[in-house]
Amino acid sequence: MKKIFLVGMVAGLLASCHTKTDGYTIEGTLTGDAASGKAYLERSEYQAEPTVVDSTMVENGSFTFSGKVERPGLYYVVIDLNKPGEEPDYQNKMFRTMLYLENSDITYKGDVATLPGFYYAPDRKNESPQITGSSVHDLFTKMNQEMKTYSDTLNVLAERYADEYLVPESEGKEVAAIGMDIAREEMKWKDKLLAFQLQFIKDHADSPVAMDQAMYYLSGMEYLPDVTEIDQLQALFEKYWAGTPELKLFEQAASAARPLAVGQKYKDIDVIDRNGKTVKLSSMIPENEYVMLEFWASWCGPCRGEIPHLRKIHDKYKDFAIVSISLDEKEKEWQKAMKEENMSWTQGRLDGGIYGEGAKTYNIQAIPMCLILDKEGRFYKTNMRGAYLDVFLDDLYKTE
To answer: Which residue, 92, 135, 134, is CA-closest to 113?
Structure first.
């Protein structure tokens, strides 16, 4: 992926017995092999890479940050224990932890052997550091604890999906029924998790934690909200965040989400067809059919991995149209990939790739991304692929 959606990007005020007016301190203590290194404090910004706002040395496992923030918000503490001149180890010697920072005395305690690496390592035991002194971060921790039943169950289902469906399917085995059973169960738990998250947002709308959760929801990475839900969230945040830069960021995210909300008509944009001619997207979308707009690129591994399954869907469901839209910047690479993957269905490419105007119109945060249109060309579903697409189509054509 060339874009990575970042969850945290906004801040707000919470009352706290720890809150100070003269700034914050972060006292860090590391146990284990942490004799020396550097620590960085990064600010998380909406749809942007985190920016370093401070740095300090780690000496004998200790480090300190101090400063002042206008409002609490999401930051990252990055610990780098790599030695100069050595090949960086991003899994065992470089660590990154989310921290909701406010003006208070904060402590950070972690074990180098178990701190989550900068890049995920499946064979490494990961334990978040103990962070105390920030009431905002306490709320974030409480939310994660309350979500644990959902997240643990979904993690188990994700492992089963990979082991029992993705791997066997890649080996040519017929495991569609198994994948669909797992996908149906996962969908139930995702719905439960979403209900929890939306209630959390409503209950803690004055908190940057809730604001961040809402921003992620609006991204469309998992679900497509409808316009009513977006308007309700905006009205809720206006009550607590009026006149703040954070509300402006939320309004920008809401404006980007509204055109893609459930029930909205798809946006007709310019698309380059197989022959290099610029045409309207509407010329590629058949009338009175369900359609999947599938955004991909030749350089995207997960996108390429999904194409064999799309070939099966294309052959099985003649009344379900697939329109694949490439975000390749180079036509030659796009044409080469289409030929290699034998993509016989409708194909197009967006000028400018993932950073172009077409991608912005469709609020594309990362790929692969798919949007399902109903027979009237209105947004209906998102994130349907693999066995989840099989479930969707199985249910759709059983009821029609």
So the answer is: 92
